[in-house]
Structure formats: C-alpha cells, structure tokens
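Researcher: We are triaging several targets before committing to wet-lab work. For this one, the compound of interest is coenzyme A. I'm pasting the protein sequence and the ligand SMILES. What I need is the predicted three-dimensional arrangement of the protein with the ligand bound, expressed as structure tokens, so it can go straight into our comparison scripts without reformatting.
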Amino acid sequence: MGREISYRPLVEADLPLMTDWLNQVHLRAFYQRDPTTAAEVAAKYGPRIRGEAPAHCSLALMDGAPFGYLQCYRVADWADWREAIGVEHGVAIDLFIGEPGLIGRGIGRRMLDGFVKVALGRYPDERLCWIAHELENHAARQCSTAAGFSPVKTFLDDGRASILMVRQGSALTPPNA
Ligand SMILES: CC(C)(COP(=O)(O)OP(=O)(O)OC[C@H]1O[C@@H](n2cnc3c(N)ncnc32)[C@H](O)[C@@H]1OP(=O)(O)O)[C@@H](O)C(=O)NCCC(=O)NCCS
C-alpha cells in the first residue's frame, strides 16, 4: 500500500509548476516533445482553468504535495480527437507524473485508477473512460492496463501509431469482461 493520492483542480498559481514539469526530460519522449515557455503554458491551460475550454485539469497530490497532472474532457467536445479515435461518447483522460523521482514506482497506476471516478463524476451522463498512448509508450500502456483499461484498437494520432484503451465505471473490470 502506498500513500493516499488525492486530486484537486489546477489553478493559475500552479502554472509555474506546470511549466517546470512540462520541461522535464522524462516528458520529452511522448507528452511534451519540445521545451515550452510560461507564456505557452498559460495560453494552453489558462482557458481550461477559467472554464473557457471544455476540459478539466487536475493535480494529483500525496501528503498535500502535487506530483502529477491529469486532465479529462468529453470526447464529443473535441471534434479532432473524436474523429481521430472514432468514438462519439465517453470521457478521455491524459496524465503524467511531473516529479521525475516518482516515475516507475507504481504510483501512475494508482493515480489513474483513482482518477477514473473523478472524471466520470464530472460527466455523470458518461459511462466510459478512454485513454490513448503511442504504441511505443510501453510504460503508459502497462500503467493503463494495470489501472483496468483494456485495448480497443490502434489508430493514428497525428501520424503516430497509437492504441486506444477503455475502462468503465469505478470497478477495476474491463467492459464486456
Ligand atoms: C505513464 C506514467 C504515468 C506511468 O506511471 P508510472 O508510475 O511510471 O507507472 P507504474 O510504476 O505505476 O507502472 C505501471 C506498470 O507499468 C510498468 N512499467 C513502468 N515503466 C515501464 C517501462 N518503461 N516499460 C514497460 N513497463 C513499464 C510497471 O512495471 C507496471 O506494470 P505491472 O503493473 O505489470 O507491474 C509515467 O511513466 C509518466 O508520467 N510518463 C511520462 C508521461 C506519459 O507518457 N504519459 C502518458 C501519455 S497520456
């Protein structure tokens, strides 16, 4: 058993921390390929924080200290993403662990598992959570599998071979199992 993970909404005061995390080397392979600036981070995440863009941004915390980021959004609200994954409904999740020392210690799977309930709680009329990873992102695929997601299909995300995974409800049971 690890220490308990909690979640809270991202706020404007967190943006310097987000900028620091997004420039960490361990995010370069898949999540944030190029270094980013405080202004770019404010332009991307500010509207989401203010409710001007249809996505909920959250921090994951342990003992009150933020260590990771998760976002969730209704697939139907993002036309490009809806077309890319070829589904019309459900809630999509993206995540990363910002603190490099916490990678690969079994925290990601717990962070994702607990967040499914949070994400579906924000969209009570939705039943499914989707997550997508590049095929080469073995850590993320294994993390999502460990958090109860099942592979659905492969697809191209901006030209990159990716896999779509799904999980329903709060129980660690894949749909149709
Ligand atoms: C993806 C991420 C959240 C996973 O969290 P994590 O804490 O590192 O993963 P965990 O320690 O919980 O490991 C979960 C599973 O993945 C496995 N795993 C971890 N790193 C791995 C790697 N590099 N290759 C293969 N499997 C790996 C673990 O052994 C574990 O498997 P198990 O349940 O069979 O024992 C984290 O690595 C991360 O933030 N990566 C950078 C951002 C990113 O790629 N986000 C996903 C894009 S949406």
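Researcher: Any quick observations?
Model: Residues 107-122 form the longest helix (16 residues).
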